[in-house]
């Protein structure tokens, strides 16, 4: 979720719709919300979606949820970010449930998997990002293949500018799954696309 402060509306009705349409998991990343409001949003989401994950940017992430999603271990341009992957190892130690990590290159994704992530979101697959190159359909599928071994249990979710038909193509071709954010929450016209 991008946050009510960005979408300028209550996202709970959309969360409910997504759950009714079969959404399996959602990451709530609302660092601006006071803890009690965040907990209320979590409790609401848990009524409708089987797996609710808290973004680690929120100070109370571990108190609110056993499942945590971490930002990319590298800042823009590839320079070391939040103490690199040492921080990820610390998060893995403290996380009682599922640990996810945002990644922007296949090598970041591989390092996150090695450090103990249960899933990574890999972006951008299709659209351009001001700081990261497009990974592309083939680059994403190649990354999935490296994860789909008997030794790896990490899932690689495609994110970044895809349409419903592009996502379907990825899943048919052997991709692990998709992650959707951004415009889906900010543009009401995209709600039907999200539900498809």
Walk me through what this model shows:
It contains ten helices and seven strands. 41% of the residues lie in helices and 14% in strands. A seven-stranded parallel β-sheet has the order 1-2-3-4-5-6-7. It is an alpha/beta fold and 196 residues long. Helix 2 runs parallel beside helix 3 and helix 6 runs parallel beside helix 7. Strand 3, helix 5 and strand 4 form a beta-alpha-beta unit.
Outline, from the CA principal axes? globular
Work out the strand percent.
5-15%
Order of helices and strands: HHEHEHEHEHEHEHEHH
Give the helix/strand class: alpha/beta
Low-confidence stretches: 75-83
Helix content, binned percent: 40-55%
- What does the average pLDDT come to? 78
* Assembly classification: single chain
- Tell me the distance between the termini: 18 Å
Care to count the β-strands?
A: 7
Number of helices, where a helix is a run of at least 4 consecutive DSSP H or I residues = 10
What composes the largest sheet? 7 strands, parallel
Major β-sheet strand ordering:
1-2-3-4-5-6-7
Rg, alpha carbons: 16 Å
């Amino acid at each position: 979720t991008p946050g009510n402060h960005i979408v300028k509306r209550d996202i709970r009705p959309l969360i409910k719709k997504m759950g009714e349409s079969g959404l399996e998991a959602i990451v709530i990343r609302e660092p601006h919300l006071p803890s009690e409001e965040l907990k209320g949003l979590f409790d609401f989401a848990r009524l409708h979606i089987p797996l609710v994950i808290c973004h680690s940017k929120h100070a109370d992430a571990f108190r609110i949820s056993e499942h945590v999603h971490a930002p990319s271990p590298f800042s823009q341009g590839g320079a070391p970010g939040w103490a690199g992957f040492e921080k990820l190892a610390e998060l893995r130690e403290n996380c009682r449930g599922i640990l996810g990590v945002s990644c922007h290159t296949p090598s970041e994704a591989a390092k996150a998997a090695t450090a103990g992530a249960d899933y990574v979101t890999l972006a951008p697959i299709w659209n351009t990002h001001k700081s990261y190159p497009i990974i592309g359909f083939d680059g994403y599928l190649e990354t999935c293949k490296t994860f789909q071994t008997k030794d790896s249990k990490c899932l690689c979710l495609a994110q970044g500018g895809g349409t419903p038909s592009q996502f379907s193509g990825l899943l048919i071709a052997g991709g692990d799954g998709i992650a959707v954010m951004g415009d889906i929450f900010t543009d009401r016209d995209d709600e039907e696309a999200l539900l498809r």
